[in-house]
Amino acid sequence: MFAVRIHGRGGQGAVTAAELLSVAAFDEGRHAQAFPTFGSERTGAPVVAFCRIDDRPIRLREPVTDPDALVVQDPTLLHQVDLFAGLSPDGFLVVNTSSSFEEMGLAELVGRLSPERAVTVPATEIARLHLGRPLPNAALLGALAALTGEVSLAALCHAIRDRFPGDVGEGNAHAAEAAYEHVLESMRRTTDA
Question: What angle do CA 186, 188, 193 make, to 5 degrees?
Fold first, then answer.
């Protein structure tokens, strides 16, 4: 089973991201589930969403405490919440920022992970470029797909376009594609270094 935990703030699309990821996995013939947990239901409040993907039916229903992948939609949460709890050294990490891990003070933490399993992605900037709005969720899913290979970019874009028909879906799909390419390029640079 592959478990994903997404940390964001209300209004950034963390819940939608988990749902889209589960739909993409389901469309590829796998079993998936997605659900959120949050305190006060207001824009800007911390939100955590979860997704599980497996080749067999999923019986678990509790929150993901030991994620295989962690997605951080809002870097302002880094010093407010213990985002990295349960992330093992062989886990995957995607953080929405144009800064490096060193610039964010996360070099030591990321140093415990395999270099090819941790990336920063300017998902908000990518979303602004392709969608005209600072909604990073689709871009971060594209980054996650590139980093983990758990879902294909094609299935992800299909789920996005199906959920958001028209220009919104196209913009989000293009943001996912751009972030996917960004991660592949980052991985090539890491491999070449």
Answer: 95
